[in-house]
Write a structure and sequence with these properties.
Shape: globular
Number of strands: 13
Distance between the termini: 50 Å
CATH class of the largest domain: Alpha Beta
Strand content: 15-25%
CATH architecture of the largest domain: 2-Layer Sandwich
């Protein structure tokens, strides 16, 4: 089966924004005050900052905004962070050189993934580092995606390989493997790692069995190794609008969000999806690449996934900025 990769040098793609959420409220006669909180899942209460409260039942550290203005300020800082991620990706002129892992890739650990997103070691060595990487994937992946379509999580160690991550349906059963190169992951920035995960999840979002019919005969739509893409799927509409009549595309900053997006329609969709998660609609112009990003808003499923991803990353960003401000 075909594998979908993203090179370390690309830094992968990008995401994330929604941030504080409504937690509860209280009434004081005529006054109703909103209360907002930010939560972080932890393994131990020692991971909580001094301004956070630990919930032992849920295993979370949380803090509340002292005012609505503070929430707005934190949201703005997160949005500015996302915008900088998009700018960095847009200005990345690193040549595209997709290098696929060899057949003798050194597997560190292989896990099965349960429908509740728990990982169970199947082979190799278990460890805190590999489980921390899965935790990052789990937080970014909507439950409906990871619960239904991810069955294998794999970690390999190839220091001389440019591939940071890949996903594939290795046995053609409609369930996916997500694999991470721990050598690259540990030497990349948190920003690069998270945007890479978003890019790889975009492949599963667009190529799972709700989007692609494994039966390829006859195929009257876009035909891929995974099968025939359903005509009303986001990927097929994306392909028919922007790729159907294109052969050997050349990079044009007004047409593609990154140089890597010129690889094929599948990679262009994943790259565009990352910018869709990262950028606000108000930041989009009239270029073809911005039209591509804007077109994804017509799919309620993608909009819901975008909000989930932005919320997950926003909370991380806000917490870090809050800690930096306090210390």
């Amino acid at each position: 089966m075909k594998k979908y990769y993203i090179p370390l040098t690309i830094g992968a793609l990008a995401l994330l924004g929604g941030i504080y959420y409504y937690l509860t409220y209280y009434q004081d006669e005529e006054e109703v005050a909103s209360l907002y909180a930010y939560e972080t899942e932890v393994d131990d209460p020692s991971e909580c900052a001094s301004f956070e409260v630990y919930d032992s039942k849920r295993k979370i550290c949380s803090f509340e905004c002292t005012s609505e203005q503070e929430c707005d300020d934190l949201q703005q800082k997160a949005d500015e962070e996302f915008a900088s991620w998009a700018d960095e990706l847009t200005n990345d002129n690193t040549p595209v050189a997709e290098k696929k892992p060899s057949g003798d890739v050194a597997i560190v650990a292989r896990y099965s993934v349960t429908p509740t997103e728990t990982i169970v070691l199947q082979s190799g060595e278990d460890g805190d580092e590999t489980r921390a990487i899965w935790d990052a994937i789990r937080k970014l992946s909507p439950d409906t995606l990871s619960n239904n379509y991810i069955e294998v999580y794999e970690v390999f160690n190839e220091p001389n390989d440019d591939t940071l991550a890949f996903v594939d349906d290795e046995d053609g059963n409609g369930k996916w493997r997500i694999a991470i190169n721990v050598a690259g992951y540990t030497t990349s920035s948190d920003r690069e790692n998270k945007t890479t995960i978003i890019h790889e999840l975009a492949h599963i979002i667009s190529l799972n069995t709700s989007q692609v019919n494994p039966d390829t005969s006859p195929c009257t739509t876009l035909k891929l190794d995974e099968g025939c893409v359903y005509p009303d799927s986001p990927l097929h509409i994306f392909w028919s609008t922007y790729w159907k009549d294109i052969q050997n595309p050349k990079f044009d900053k007004n047409t593609f969000v990154t140089e890597y997006a010129t690889t094929n329609e599948v990679e262009d969709f994943a790259e565009t999806f990352a910018f869709f998660v990262l950028k606000q609609q108000t930041e989009l112009g009239t270029s073809i690449k911005d039209q591509k990003i804007r077109s994804l808003y017509s799919f309620p499923l993608l909009v819901a996934i975008r909000e989930d991803m932005r919320s997950a990353l926003s909370k991380d960003i806000i917490r870090k900025k809050k800690i930096t401000t306090r210390y």
